[in-house]
Every structure is written in C-alpha cells, then in structure tokens.
Amino acid sequence: MKKLLTLALAAVLALSLVACGGSGSIKDGTYTAQYKEPSHDWTEYLSVTYKDGVITDVDFDAKDANGNLKSEATAETYPMDPLPSEWIPQLEENVKAAGTADKIEAVAGATSSSESVKVLMAAVEKQAKAGNTEVVLVDNAE
Asked: Residue 31 in contact with residue 133, Cβ under 8 Å?
C-alpha cells in the first residue's frame, strides 16, 4: 500500500512539474518590441536574446526617420544632457540584470526611456513565453 501511495504521489508531482514548466517558461531566441509611432522624432525598440531562460543580450535604442540611431547622436544632433551614448548602455545592463520588466531600474537623466524600456520589456516577455519571434508593435502611451 505504501508503494502504491508513493508511486501515485510521484506521478502527481511529475505531472504538475510538466504542466507548470510548459506554458509560462521563456523560449530561447531573440524577441523584439518597438513602438508603433515615433515619440519626439524617435521610435524606440528593445531586442532581448534568451538562452536557457536567461537574458544573454540586450539591444535598446531608437531610430529617427532617416534610420539614425539615438545611441550614436552627438551634442549637435541631440540637445539633451547626458547623451544617449552615456545612458543607453546602462539601461541595457539594467534590463539584463533585472531579467523582468517590473524589476528594471531607471537611469538618471533618461526617465522617459527608462519607462519605455519597461513597457517594451513586458511585450518582449509575452512574446518569449509564446516563442513568437516576430517583432511586436506596441501602442505609444502618449
């Protein structure tokens, strides 16, 4: 009788682990989310690569209508201080360290983009759980 009970409990445990692991886990791959419309002439995007459920690479940036990257903007083309080349790498590191949208720390001097990366990361996470590597377009909050 004890053997039967032990086998039954083991079977239930195994089935529950399989059920929990399937639908909510992150699938390996690169997932991208971007805003549908530009904000202040820039369209922000976030690409995140996962391997074994862990973030291995993050690319956050924005493009203007000519395809120029915000991370490459100069003081002449981007009138705010600090320059994006200073805070974008830190924001990318914060995404990688946090691992999830609700834990991403903001970067001083980049309040708007810090909020944007959280929104885009939430969309990336949804795509990664579904294993959908198509670029997802996110409605602008403005």
From this structure: yes
Whether 6 has a pLDDT exceeding 70, the answer reads no
Count Cβ atoms below 10 Å from residue 3 Cβ, excluding itself.
7
In a domain, residue 104? The reply is yes
H helix or E strand, kind and range, residue 118:
helix 111-130
Sign, Cα dihedral of 107, 116, 92, 94: positive
Asked if residue 11 belongs to a domain, the reply is no
Determine the Cα–Cα distance for residues 65 and 136; give it in Å rounded to an integer: 19
Average pLDDT (82-108) is 96
Q: What is the pTM of this model?
A: 0.81
Q: pLDDT class for 1, splitting at 50, 70, 90?
A: low
* Structural domain includes residue 128: yes
Please tell me the total count of domains within the chain. Answer: 1
As a whole number, the mean pLDDT across the chain is 86
Residue 72 is assigned to a structural domain of this protein: yes
Domain range for 37 is: 26-138
**SS3 call for 60:** strand
